[in-house]
Design goal:
The structure is a single chain. It is built from nine helices and 13 strands. It is α/β, with parallel strands linked by helices. Helix content is 28%, strand content 25%. Helix 3 (88-100) crosses helix 8 and helix 3 runs antiparallel to helix 9 (277-284). Strands 8, 9, 10, 11, 12 and 13 form a six-stranded mixed sheet that branches. A three-stranded parallel sheet has the order 6-3-7. The protein folds into two domains: 2-26 and 38-149 and 248-290, D-Maltodextrin-Binding Protein, domain 2, CATH 3.40.190.10; 150-247, Periplasmic binding protein-like II (D-Maltodextrin-Binding Protein, domain 2). The chain has helices at residues 48-51, 56-61, 88-100, 114-119, 177-192, 206-214, 225-234, 261-274, 277-284; strands spanning 2-7, 12-17, 63-68, 77-78, 85-86, 103-108, 125-126, 140-155, 169-173, 199-203, 220-224, 239-241, 246-256.
Length: 302
């Protein structure tokens, strides 16, 4: 097993690469990706007025070449049965491709190499839950399509306040921002106030953290909001959200700086937002709380 630390959602996240693929949450201790849901069909057709503006070189190729890094369930990961890359991001990008009359060609790459490869012209865009921030906007443009932050989950009927969890056992994945920043800061606030520290329980795999909550081994879990939402969707009879999403920032698709493709992608995803397919795709994957209603280019706030 190898561990790579990269910058993806809200901060540091360890991408644990397993030979058998990423482990997914189930309602028992036997986690596997064999429970990949069959996504309901979303009706999307080509929109000629938008497709007409696709850059000529991409139009002639008939495809969008998309750099992607896996695993990051539920946004992008490999289905162990088919070997295909699936997820919320994938379904949304496939829908964008249909609006533009293009096929989508997903090419797997190291996360940190995707933006340089876009600059070099190897990929047309990236699709790996990139947080759009001011620093990244110096080297690429971002078409924003989602809002992600941190979110807690709790056992059903056993409320936990994320802002007052002193003395509670809270599961996190190692080296995430929740592990390195959020829980230590909240725990210090507890002890500074003379209250018990938060008992942080760190796991190498996000699925193990979620499973610990399902099994009642911890009181709560903190993770990136789409990860938490998907965990709740997979075990909705056992766990539920513990408060709203916080510290949100946009996810965006990186493209070459100044590329005309940005406006076309923005128009395509806005079409899907306006006509309901976007919300349906988000709901299929249980991440609808992070859905947005307006796509912008380079919408980073920090």
């Amino acid at each position: 097993m190898s561990v790579r630390i990269d910058f993806r959602g809200r901060g540091l996240r360890a991408a644990v690469v397993l030979a058998a693929g990423a482990l997914a949450l189930t309602a028992c201790t036997n986690n596997s990706e064999s429970t990949t849901p069959a996504a309901p069909t979303v009706d999307v057709t080509k929109v000629d007025s938008i497709a007409a503006n696709v850059p000529a070189d991409i139009k002639s190729s008939g495809k969008l070449i998309v750099g992607v890094n896996v695993p990051y369930q539920p946004n992008e990961y490999r289905d162990p049965s088919s070997g295909k890359i699936v997820g919320f991001d994938v379904d949304l990008m496939n829908a964008v491709g249909k609006v533009l009359g293009l096929n989508t060609d997903y090419q797997e790459a190291d996360f940190e190499k995707i933006i340089p490869a876009i600059e070099a012209g190897t990929y047309n865009l990236g699709m790996s839950s990139f947080t759009d921030n001011k620093d990244r906007e110096k080297t690429a443009d971002f078409v924003d399509y989602f809002s992600a932050g941190s979110q807690w989950a709790q056992q059903k009927g056993k409320p936990v306040d994320p802002n007052n969890a002193c003395g509670k056992r809270v599961a996190v994945q190692r080296t995430t921002v929740q592990d390195t920043d959020e829980i230590p800061a909240k725990s210090k606030a507890c002890t500074d106030a003379g209250k018990p520290a938060i008992q942080k329980v760190a796991y190498d795999e996000q699925s193990a953290a979620a499973n610990a909550l399902v099994q009642g081994q911890v009181d709560a879990m903190s993770a990136d909001s789409p990860v938490t939402a998907y965990a709740i969707k997979q075990a909705s009879d056992k766990i539920e959200s513990a408060g709203p999403i916080f510290d949100s920032a946009p996810y965006g698709w990186p493209i070459k700086k100044g590329s005309a493709l940005g406006t076309v992608l923005q128009q395509a995803v806005q079409y899907l937002m306006d006509h309901g397919q976007y919300k349906q795709i988000a709901t299929n994957w249980g991440v609808q709380e992070g859905a947005i209603t307006k796509s912008v280019i380079n919408g980073a706030q920090s």
